[in-house]
Amino acid sequence: MGNNYxxxxxxxPLDPDRIEQHKDFAALMKQYQAEQSKGKxxxxxxxxxxxxxxxxxxxxxxxxxxxxxxxxDTRELLAAQEAYxxxxxxxxxxxPAADPAFIKQNISAESGGTYDLNAGLRxxxxxxxxxxxxxxxxxxxxxxxYREMHNPVDFFLxxxxxxxxxxxxxxxxxxxxxxxxxxxxDGQAIQLAPGKTIRVELISSAFFxxxxxxxxxxxxxxxxxxxxxxxxxxxxxxxxxxxSENSNSADDTPDRQRQLGILAEAEAERIAxxxxxxxxxxxxxxxxxxxxxxxxxxxxxxNLGDLDEETRNILEDTDLSGAWWIAENQAxxxxxxxxxxxxxxxRYVADNLYEMSLIAGDxxxxxxIHPILIGPEQEEAQARYQAKLKSYQxxxxxxxxxxxxxxxAIQDSFALARAALYAERGEESGPxxxxxxxxxxxxxxxxxxxxxxxLEPGVLKVLEKLExxxxxxxxxxxxxxxxxxxxxxxxxxxxxxxxxxxxxSDQILIWILDxxxxxxxxxxxxxxxxxxxxxxxxxxxxxxxxLIREPADLRVFLNQxx
Length: 562
Prior knowledge:
The protein is α+β, with helices and mostly antiparallel strands and 562 residues long.
C-alpha cells in the first residue's frame, strides 16, 4: 500500500467585516422611496442583514404574494415589517431575565430509558442514541436540557416566532404544545445519531369548538439555518379530553361524549390516511457546493497510492470527477492530513456522506466527509441544484396548498357531523371548551418542536400611531397581540405607521415593552370590528409603572392563567 497520501488544501478567503446594522426603519423606508423616485442607482451599498437591499427585496416579494388591490402604503408597511424582523434574531426573548429556564435531566447514553419528567411530559430515549460532532457514538452519562411552552406568555417570553410561510401566504400558528430540547456531555453539544428518535408525550391545554374541528394539528420543527418553521413528516398522534365551560349543557352527557370521541377518532384516522397518501416532497440537497468559510481538500487517486476497490470506485465515479472534499460539520486538525498514512479507506454512509478512515496499525482517524466542486464544475452543479430547488419549491407549494384544502374538507365534514349531534336537541352549535390535549410524536433532531394548526389570515388595518397616556409615541418597537381564545401570540412592527393583521375575535389585547421593560398595553380587550374601524387612527395604550420581571407579572395583564 502507498504510505504518503498527498492531501491538497483549498483555504477559504477571509470574510469581510460586517457593516454596522441600520436600525431606523422609518428613515430607511423614506430613503428607499427617495431612491426609487430618482429612477436610477446611486451606487452599490449593502446593509448587513437588512437595509435598503432587504426592503427592496421584501417589497418585490410582497408584490408577488399579496393581492394587488392593496394600497401601496400597505405593501410598503408589510415590506418594512419584513425588513425589521430580518434584522432580529430568529428566537429573540424580549426580557432576557424572564426567559423560560431549561430543566436538566441526566440519562445513560448506552441504555436510554423512559423518563416521566413531570405530570405532563414523558420522553422515551432509545439505546445508543447520541453521537458527537464527528459522528462518534457517545457513551456514559449525558444531560438533556429541555423546556416546555404551552401558552402565549411562554411564547412571548421565549421569543419563539409563531408564523408559518407557505405558498406565498403567511399563517399564524396556534400551538397545542411546544418543547425545546438539547443534549450535552461535559458541556459540549451532542447530536441524535442517524435513525434514532426520541418519543415525546406532551400534555397541554387549548380551546376548541365543535364547529372548528379538533384534530387539525401538525408537527413543525424550527429550522434555525433557514430561519423558518418547517412542517415535519414525522407522525403526530393526539388525544383530546374535553371539559365543558357550561356545566348545564347537554354536552356533558356520557352519550354525547362517546359520540364526540368516535367522531374525533374517525377524523384523526381520515387525516392520517390523507397524509400517507400525500407524502411531502423531498428537498434536494445542495450536495456539491462549497461553503465559503470551510476549507476543502483534494483526494486525487493518482496521489494516493494503492487503494482498495471500494475506495477507488468512489473516487473514480464520474459524478465525483474534479471533486474536492470537506469535513461534515466537525472540527479537525488539518495536520492529520499532512502526515504519511499506510492505509486510507472510503465508505459510503448515506445522502452524499462518506466515512474516511486513515489507518496506521492500531491507530485510526475517522472523518465524516462529503464531496464538493470548485471552479466551473461547481458553477454547473450550483445551476443544477437551483433548477432542482425551484422545482421542489413549486411542488412544495402545490402540495401544501392541496394538503390544507383536503384537510379542511375533512374537518368541515366532521364539523357538520358534530353540529348534527347538537341539532338533534335543538342546539345551534357545540360548546366552547377548554380541553387537555395529549400530543404523542417523535423528534429526530435537537431543537424546537411545535404541535400547531394554521389560522386563517385576519383583516389588515393601518394605524397612524401607538401612543400612551404620557404622550409617548412608540416607533421602532416590536409589538404583540393575543386573542383570548386562541393559543398563539402575534408579533408586529410598530413604526412610523403600524400595520395590524386583526383576527376575528372579541378578546384582542395588544402591548409593547418600552426601553425600561415596562409594559404599555390596551386597558381593555377589543374586538375585530373596533380595531378595524375606519375612525380608529391612534391606539391609546396605558403605560404601567412596574417592570416585567416574572411570567406572573405579565399574566396579570394578559389574564392567561388557566
